[in-house]
Design goal:
Length: about 400
Amino acid sequence: MNQKSYLNGLVCVKDKGSEISVLCFSGPVPGERFHFYRSFDQEHVNVIYVKESLPGWFQNGLPGARSYVGLKEFLIDLIDGLGSKKLYCFGASMGGYAALLYGALLKAERILTFGARTYIHPNFITNSRIIANKGATESIKRLYPIIQDYVNTGGLIINVCGEDEWLDIFHLSRLSKLDGVKSYTLPNAGHNVGAWLKAHYYLDEFLVQGLLYGNCEIIEPLNSFIFSNTKALDCVVEFIKKYHSGDLNACKNVLDHLNELFPLWSLGHFHRALVAAESGEIELSIKSNQKSLQLDPSSLKSLYLSGKLNMQSSRWVEAVRIFQDVVTKKPTLDRPIVLRKAYYGLAYSLQMVSNHDEALKYLELGNNVIPGKQTEIDDLSFKKSVLI
């Protein structure tokens, strides 16, 4: 196997002399690392890894291949140089957006994404301001027409997102209705589908089977309920629109309707609890969240919310118990920032029950959750508002 780097280390090629190539996109990763770097090592396929130096959603290309057009042409040259007869594209999160964009433009055989966002808008993409500041001159902010053309000419797409990550579901809602697009969810996976798959020992097998062979049925928890149920999907889409516009009253109406239609779907009750908490209706939030946990005791997001609600109600002993449960199950928690806040919540609650030594221990653990991004909090005098 020959391995080469390009564009200041932002592109890495593993050349195995195969006629099949995989194009794998990552968001910013420090150093010489790439996400999913060894997932295809056991397969006789070439792999081209591409990452960004800053979170810009590949709108300005990369240094040495400026603009998305320049990056497309650069990738074509790489793929042709490998002698590829078949191309497959994969990406997660920001990389999922890139996989959809470049996979469609390069007419890949199949595209696989984890937690992909499908269009750039200030209300629905956290890094849209960064893109604007970078001044992308040839940006593509809406993928739908490109994807529509791709699947109409025989292209195939598989999307996977967390069932509890409604913003990802919102982004996939329109694409999922196209022929040639299959969208699935995983329970309690959040935005970081790759972390969920790795924690459950499915990651490499699913990447190979899903991307190269289109076989998603190897994962039993994978389901398409939300994308095959128009009423549920419409409620989720409407909720996200109203929530990101700040209309909490409209959110309540949407969620109440959803819970009437699907009273046994825990996530409807969980989001009702979130909205009630934001509206200051703490007792209603506790009641709705309890219903969510009754229906799905494995939901870490509901557990974490329960800890926050007990903090807000000054129920410190119960808050300690719940936060300890959350941090114990940390391998499946999808966002480090949530784990950090769980440690801080535990530290604060322990302080309130006069367990100072344990409180300081968990404060330090919270400070070091994200390598290289240690916080400035060095004592327990910070306010509850920092945590909730």
